[in-house]
Design brief:
Layout (H helix, E strand, L loop, with lengths): L1 H24 L2 H28 L2 H24 L5 H30 L4 H30 L7 H20 L17 H14 L1 H17 L1 H14 L3 H24 L6 H20 L4 H29 L5 H12 L2 H14 L2 H22 L1 H4 L7
Helix pairs in contact: 1-5, 1-6, 1-9, 2-4, 2-9, 2-13, 2-14, 3-4, 3-6, 4-13, 5-6, 5-10, 5-12, 8-12, 8-14, 8-15, 9-10, 9-15, 10-12, 11-12, 11-15, 14-15
């Protein structure tokens, strides 16, 4: 229940925030800067968050961070509803969420194998993602419809978005309460070590484990370019589809359906061999479908292409994360998760030039450039880390 509420809140927030920001600025780069405002703080503080996740109770960290996130969302809801919201509010909110995420995400990453066991990680991760992706289908449609309904047809009104934000605040509050009932006592690292020693131990582990290091980079670099579809979607909707908030909701829902199919497919194939090779093929499929999506000029074609894009994206990302969880020992999982967050903070380096291309040329050119860079980077990483292709089932 906690995951469902959090997932619906996140998806509805993405639609409301993306629509309002682009309506306020008409700038793809504005959407890029909001993403950066979250990712950079998450990267800066992630190493500290990983040490905290391995030293403290992960359930408590998840609850506390989510309560703080709820409070921040309520403040943003109020400012938006009264019509005083500015672009800088979203930047500040992004920074705050990024700092919280640097603590909560390593805890969420590390707790899964402790709850279900290593053998069931791929299946559990896929099913958890499936729950999340159900929200990607209904959440955007609900958010787009509510914005239009609350604004009484005036979709430029911030009041409609503000009311949706209040609803999201309630969902986030519910999601922070349910983990309290989780039957989890928790484990921790040797508290005799200093946090600095824990920090150094994480780096030493990765230095010796080339397979895990390779999985981190393979999960990161193609995603730098592939994930641009998500944050440029509001601009694509208005510039290419000529759509409003409801059309944006349908586009996002289509991608949610594709992502759901991808996660269910991974769950079905959780015991399949040659997972390393399959992961590379999924990355190539993701890149090709982005190129198709970029030049789909009508709503229905864009929904279909977007669904295929999300299918490959979700299958690739879930498989990469599951293999990383399985192959990482329990005592250092929180720190490895924090290092993944830190490396993911490099994503804006790819998002900035793509955002600039969208600003100077158009959205379609920017997305096509991103798909080409995905193809090239996946091929090069396959040459650098050939041992990743040899991963079979991932568990004993």
């Amino acid at each position: 229940m906690s995951t469902v509420c959090l997932a619906f809140g996140t998806q509805m927030q993405n639609i409301g925030r993306g629509w309002l920001i682009y309506d306020m600025t008409s700038s793809p780069m504005a959407l890029t800067w909001v993403m950066i405002s979250y990712m950079v703080p998450a990267a800066i503080f992630s190493l500290v968050g990983g040490v905290i996740a391995d030293r403290m109770n992960k359930k408590s960290l998840m609850v506390i961070s989510q309560l703080l996130n709820t409070m921040a969302m309520f403040v943003l809801s109020y400012v938006t509803y009264i019509g005083e919201v500015t672009f800088s509010h979203f930047i500040v909110f992004g920074v705050f969420n990024g700092i919280l995420g640097s603590v909560s995400m390593p805890a969420r990453f590390a707790i899964v194998p402790e709850l279900v066991g290593d053998y069931n990680v791929v299946n559990a991760s896929a099913l958890q993602t499936a729950t999340y992706n159900l929200s990607r289908i209904a959440g955007p449609i609900l958010a787009g419809g509510l914005i239009a309904a609350f604004a009484a047809g005036d979709t430029t009104s911030a009041q409609g978005v503000g009311l949706v934000f209040f609803l999201i605040s309630m969902l986030l509050l519910i999601s922070s309460i349910f983990p309290l009932f989780l039957d989890y006592q928790g484990t921790s690292t040797d508290v005799k070590k200093t946090p600095l020693e824990d920090f150094a131990e994480g780096f030493q582990f990765l230095k010796k484990e080339k397979v895990i290091t390779g999985l981190i980079f393979i999960g990161l670099v193609p995603s730098i370019f592939g994930s641009t579809v998500n944050f440029l979607l509001p601009a694509f909707n208005q510039e290419v589809i000529l759509g409003g908030p409801e059309e944006l909701g349908f586009l996002s829902a289509g991608m949610g359906l594709g992502a759901l199919i991808g996660s269910l497919l991974l769950a079905k194939l959780s015991d399949l061999g040659s997972k390393g090779q399959i992961m590379f093929l999924a990355s190539y499929g993701w890149a090709i479908t982005i190129a198709i999506f970029a030049f789909s000029g009508h709503l229905f074609a864009a929904i279909v292409a977007g669904a295929l894009t999300a299918l490959f994206h979700n299958f690739f990302g879930s498989l990469n994360m599951s293999l990383t969880q399985i192959l990482t020992p329990q005592f250092v999982r929180g720190r490895v998760a924090s290092l993944i967050l830190m490396v993911n903070g490099l994503m804006p380096l790819g998002a900035i030039p793509i955002g600039i291309i969208a600003e100077v040329f158009n959205i379609q050119t920017a997305l096509f450039f991103g798909s080409l860079m995905m193809l090239v980077s996946t091929f090069i990483l396959g040459l650098f880390y050939p041992e990743i292709r040899k991963i079979d089932k991932g568990h004993g």
